[in-house]
Design goal:
Number of domains: 1
Strand content: under 5%
Shape: globular
Largest sheet: none
Oligomer: single chain
Helix content: 55-70%
Order of helices and strands: HHHHH
């Protein structure tokens, strides 16, 4: 069974999207992690897919929700489309 929330592919695009979402909300990922008791390394590893266990998955979901799930979904989709266009265009 797949998790309905697991629609993001961990990697640079997801990481940059989350960092940007926190900044757009007047916050930053490192400060949010400290306030929420999440090690910055765990958060980074979760966004890049290097921490896919229960702790990493929980941290990733918490970050996405805190950054604004709908905002993250829209920004992530836009970044994917931009990347696909660049790839297709050979840029």
């Amino acid at each position: 069974m797949t998790d309905a929330k697991a629609k993001f592919q961990p990697g640079a695009i997801l990481h940059e999207t989350l960092v940007g979402a926190f900044r757009a909300n007047g916050d930053n990922l490192n400060a949010w992690c400290k306030r929420n008791g999440i090690k910055v390394e765990v958060a980074r590893n979760a966004t890049f897919g290097q921490s896919r266990g229960p702790v990493g998955r929980a941290a990733l979901e918490k970050m996405i929700d805190a950054a604004g799930r709908e905002f993250v979904e829209q920004a992530y989709a836009r970044r994917l489309l931009e990347h696909a266009a660049q790839f297709k265009g050979g840029k």
